[in-house]
Every structure is written in C-alpha cells, then in structure tokens.
Amino acid sequence: MSDVTLDHLLAVASRAPVAAYGAPPALAALVAARVAGGGEPLVVVLPDEAAAARLAEDIAFFLPPGDADRVVHVPAIDTSPYAELSPDRRAVMQRLAALFRLSHGDGSDIVVLSALSLMRRTLPPDELSALTDVLIAEEEIDRDRTVDLLVRAGYARVPVVEDPGTFAV
To answer: What's the rounded Cα separation, in Å, for the pair 87 and 158?
Structure first.
C-alpha cells in the first residue's frame, strides 16, 4: 500500500469497486467518506460484524459535522433462522430500523454491513413499508389501527413493557 497515494486510491475508488486488503481500517473509512455522495449509494462489506460496526463509526468520524446520519450500519442477526433459539430482539430491532431508513430514502448514502448481514434474507421493501408507521409526539393516532399494526409487525402485547419488541396499551 505504501506506493499508492491517497489521491490515486480515491480516483480509482470513485470509478470502480475496490478491494482494500490489508489496508488499515482508518484508511478504508477515510476513502469511503471521501468517495460517498456521488449520487449512488456506497456499500461497504466487511468479513465480520465487529469490523462492520467499527468501520461505520469510523466513516461517520471522517464525514463533515452533522453528516454522520449518512452512514447506515445494517447489523447481522447472530442466530441461524433454522436454530431453535430466538434471535436477540435488540439486534432484530436495529436491523429493521436500518432497513426502514434505507427503504425510505432518508439521505443515507453509505451502507456498511458484514458478509453475514448481506447474506441474510430480509423483508421486501413493500412488505416492510406495509408493517411500519411513523408516530409523532403530540399527534393523535387511531389506537385500534396502531395496535393491529403492531401485532401484525410481530410486537407482543404485554401488561408492562420491559423488553424491545413489546408494547402495552
């Protein structure tokens, strides 16, 4: 890597996919932050979840102040869909939140994910949209419609909310 300048790397990365083997994570984050924003989303795939989470934070560091929300980390779910274990609800919620952001085009143009996250099947955008709603503080809502939507989306109705993925009326 020592004989390649940052300007050369940025020029190549802006035209074609780049595989940066052995590059320090800070360099990969800097290149991603500089290349992103050309109209097309930038997708960065890393071999494991810890590296993906770390790189998403590093990319946000190199972006101009106030632009950190341009980076979306799509976390992997740590259990197999065929295992008899329930996945961590917090991980599921974070993944769905990231997919929601991407499906609604909120200005995020840098997507960071692990190979495991990339391979995991997700809801099609239309189905995800049908199971989501935006609630705004101080705005009136149709209680029964909201309860029905939450149940269809997989939330559990409980007497007292203590865990992610549950709701109470």
So the answer is: 19
For residue range 39-70, list pLDDT tens digits in order: 778 889 999 999 999 999 999 999 988 888 88
Instruction: Identify which of 108, 115, 110 has the alpha carbon closest to the alpha carbon of residue 31.
Output: 110
CB count in 10 Å sphere of residue 43? 14
Yes or no: say if 107 and 69 are a contact pair by the CB < 8 Å rule.
Answer: yes
Structure-token match 């494991």, residue found:
48
Q: Which residue has the tokens 């295992």?
A: 83
Q: Hunting for tokens 């101080």 — which residue is that?
A: 138
Q: How far apart are CA 152 and CA 136, in angstroms?
A: 20
Q: How far apart, in whole angstroms, are the C-alpha atoms of residue 38 and residue 34?
A: 10
Q: pTM (2 decimals)?
A: 0.74
Outline where DSSP puts E strands in 50-155: 71-74, 110-114
